[in-house]
Amino acid sequence: MWDKLVESENGSIGIERSESFYVGDAAGRTKNNNRPKSDHSCVDRLFAMNLGLKFYTPEQFFFPNSSQIEEDFLLPKFNPLQLTENSSDFNEFEPENVKIPNSSQELILLVGPPACGKSTFSQKYKDNYVIINQDELKTWQNCFDKCKKVLENGSSVIIDNTNRGLDIRITIRDSNCGGGAKYCDLAKSLNIPCRCFIFDCSLAHSLHNNEYRKIVDENGGDEAHKNINEVVIKTFFAGYKEPKLEEGFDEIVKIRFKPDFQNEQHRRIYGMYLIGSVNM
């Protein structure tokens, strides 16, 4: 919206950002003696912060001598700017000495919410692993059947699905299945190790990534992710069960989200607050 204003909707008049300001009442202010309710959100304050503008609440702007001129406020827990500034300062793997790609055949099961970087991660290793994804194959059963076939043919596999709970990770619930087959059991029946890679990404971070993806996907070409919304992401977290070695994994690896930007414009957008809620 701001870029549109600057580029074409201000009559070719230059904008002095340092002299500009934004006034809004969605400021993330908390309840106090003068304010019986907290603000419904902090999107106005975040809008100003994203643009580097001075921000005022209506009370601060219109009644500068009011007792409400300075009030406590909350910002979202997830600060995307920290990731853009420190993205090169950490190893994305835990433990740090993780070996991938593996020289021997294996099965890797990815676990993580939508918009946490699973598919981007998988594509880095597409020359070494067959990537199996339910967005393409449509059903859990199809994913399992293809995994079995690929492993039997001697190739390694990455299962690029959310795999949020035990019922999804371990037991096939499809009514057409003969019952009870497990990814880990499948790997062990073929004497192939099975590792689990967990993507360490909070609800707020996932929602941010999803909004960022919508913004930078200018041509609308990301068909696999076009229907992912807040409800889909929250549903993952509502049913999430953290994987354990007891499920049959040979190793569990945690992956920290490490952004990789195509250009400086994408980095700038990612560093903005894109989600206005302070409750996540």
At the third CATH level, what is the topology name of the largest domain? Rossmann fold
Number of extended strands: 8
What's the gyration radius in Å? 23 Å
Tell me the name of the CATH class of the largest domain: Alpha Beta
Helix/strand/pairing category: alpha/beta
Q: What is the total domain count?
A: 2
Map the helices and strands.
Elements: H1 2-8, E1 21-23, H2 43-51, E2 54-56, H3 58-62, H4 80-86, E3 93-94, E4 107-111, H5 118-123, E5 130-132, H6 134-137, H7 140-152, E6 157-159, H8 166-169, H9 183-189, E7 194-200, H10 203-216, H11 230-238, E8 251-256, H12 264-270
Parallel strand pairs: 1-2, 4-6, 4-7, 5-6, 7-8
Antiparallel strand pairs: 3-8
How would you sum up this structure, described in words?
The protein has helices at 2-8, 43-51, 58-62, 80-86, 118-123, 134-137, 140-152, 166-169, 183-189, 203-216, 230-238, 264-270; strands spanning 21-23, 54-56, 93-94, 107-111, 130-132, 157-159, 194-200, 251-256. The chain has 280 residues and is an alpha/beta fold. Strands 3-8-7-4-6-5 form a six-stranded mixed β-sheet. The chain folds into two domains: 2-75, Rossmann fold; 85-270, P-loop containing nucleotide triphosphate hydrolases (Rossmann fold). The longest helix is centred in the C-terminal third of the chain and has 14 residues, at 203-216. Helix 2 (43-51) links the parallel strand 1 and strand 2. The radius of gyration is 23 Å and the shape is elongated. Helices cover 33% and strands 11% of the residues. The protein contains twelve helices and eight strands.
